[in-house]
Amino acid sequence: MGKPLIVTIDGPAGVGKSTMAKQLAGHLSIPYLDTGAMFRSIAWKLGDGAWDWDKDRIQMTLDGMNFGLSGIGEDSVLTLNNTPVGSEIRTEQVGMWASNIATLPVIRTFLKTAQQNLGEKFSLVAEGRDMGTVIFPGAPHKFFLDASVEERANRRFKQLSSMNKPADFDELKDQISKRDHQDRNRVVAPLKAADDAITIDSTEMNKEQVFTVLKDGVA
Ligand code: DC
């Protein structure tokens, strides 16, 4: 068997990375790795305020955590200790907790090893904030997906409304801006495009147009 193929997609909150990564992984018939879900799962397990805990206490909890991956494309399943990660991690609040713990080197070091181990085992479309810069710097295909904060809040608003969930545009915009600021300005592995990434500003693009750029980029 040859060396696994790695495609990276990085970008800010709410830009549509997961949708695109799943679709591209399906197109390539390989698994998709949602690294935000790894940070979210840890944040959820540790709970509110864990970013102020001492390093050893966090490390002890991390030592009992084992991430796995099965399936391909849309059917990729991320597991934590053999249980699929659930929808409870998909709230803006858990997203903010995830962004908070993502500033801690102890967490990033742990997940770097977990993510690189998965990349040794499987071909992947890996999406997150530091896939192209830190985790898979040698990946042959790297993308950075961007869009204005208004457009991202708008997409999230429409998504929540279509699910009949309560949504406030200004609040969403504020939450997304705060998370972006923290993700872009942290000391370790901040959100940024790799020098050799193809940047796609999707503010004025639809999903099909974005997917065409991705598909052509890996062809
Ligand atoms: O992609 P997401 O919204 O599910 O990510 C949640 C948070 O996790 C994000 O705000 C920052 C952190 N994260 C990170 O620091 N590095 C990654 N590769 C993925 C996510």
Automatic annotation (TrEMBL):
Domain Cytidylate kinase: 7-211
InterPro entries the UniProt entry points to: Cytidylate_kin, Cytidylate_kinase_dom, P-loop_NTPase
Keywords linked to the UniProt accession: ATP-binding, Cytoplasm, Kinase, Nucleotide-binding, Transferase
Reaction equations catalysed: CMP + ATP = CDP + ADP; dCMP + ATP = dCDP + ADP
UniProt key word Electron transport: no
Keyword Kinase annotated: yes
Domain of life according to the entry: Bacteria
Protein residues bound to ATP: 11-19
Locations listed in the record: Cytoplasm
Broad enzyme group: transferase
A GO term, aspect molecular function: kinase activity
Transmembrane regions listed in the UniProt entry: none
EC number: 2.7.4.25
Protein name in the entry: Cytidylate kinase
Gene name of this polypeptide: cmk
